[in-house]
Amino acid sequence: MLTILWLLSLFLPASCAQLLVTCAYKGLCQQALLSSNDVVLQCDHLQAYWYFSSFQGEDPFLVSSLPNIKKLPGGSLQLNKPQPSQTGLYRCEDNNTALVVEYEIDFQDVTMLHITHKGLGQNPLQNQSLSLGREEMVFTHWEPWQDCNRCGVPGERKRLGYCYIQESLENPMPCWLYLGDEKVWSSRLRPEMQVEACLVPCNESEELIQPFFTSDISKLGQSTNNVQLTCPLASIYR
Ligand SMILES: *[C@@H]1O[C@H](CO)[C@@H](O)[C@H](O)[C@H]1NC(C)=O
Ligand SMILES: *[C@@H]1O[C@H](CO)[C@@H](O)[C@H](O)[C@H]1NC(C)=O
Ligand SMILES: *[C@@H]1O[C@H](CO)[C@@H](O)[C@H](O)[C@H]1NC(C)=O
After folding, report:
1. Number of domains comprising the chain
2. With CB atoms 3.0 to 4.6 Å apart as the test, which of 41, 155, 157, 175 could cross-link to 150 if both were Cys?
3. What digits encode the pLDDT tens for the residues 80-91?
């Protein structure tokens, strides 16, 4: 049986492991991320102006009006516990309204995270077609495995996977950037995390900063499919 965990607060208060998202000058970059995990969008311009537009058809507005978003002194934008509703286009302009950099960010709902452990025979989600009439396929775009959380003794490592949609012959896109304001519900539309056992030798010149994660997910989920884990010093990105 698949066990689905609902992680409600895998964010970190410390700034040390904040994910930095970068993009080339005047570029437009698309990225899927997880909600409730802090990120910084880079824009190296001292007099940067950031605008946000969602897919709900509203005009772009200055993000300084949003309580969980802060412009850093160098021009980059810090998003504190971003919500799925903050999915959309983030545009950084210079003081002459010229584009510096743009990001299309899909904040996928961390409370929908589908977690599986390889060693327990749990399977990640299967590819699935959507019926919007354009032969769309929903699949998980996996990040590389992260470092083992311990060395010299058995440990665990994890990798994150984001929901992507691919239309035949088109480039795949993060699900909610593809869907825009289209109202579609499918239980396949969710991000994933996979965990596996690892055993790596210790390297004294390299500090292992992986938080210890968990060992047996199925036990946690025995009485109910919903479990709330809080790990205030960990980030899901490392
Ligand atoms: C924009 O900023 C630059 C660098 O600070 C400054 O030299 C320039 O006068 C500014 N332009 C406007 C229109 O404010
Ligand atoms: C799922 O779809 C992706 C993208 O089209 C593809 O790369 C992957 O091989 C597919 N996986 C399976 C099991 O069919
Ligand atoms: C140990 O870590 C250092 C720094 O990351 C790296 O240069 C070195 O190759 C590593 N040694 C081994 C045996 O992995």
Report:
1. 2
2. 155
3. 999 999 999 999
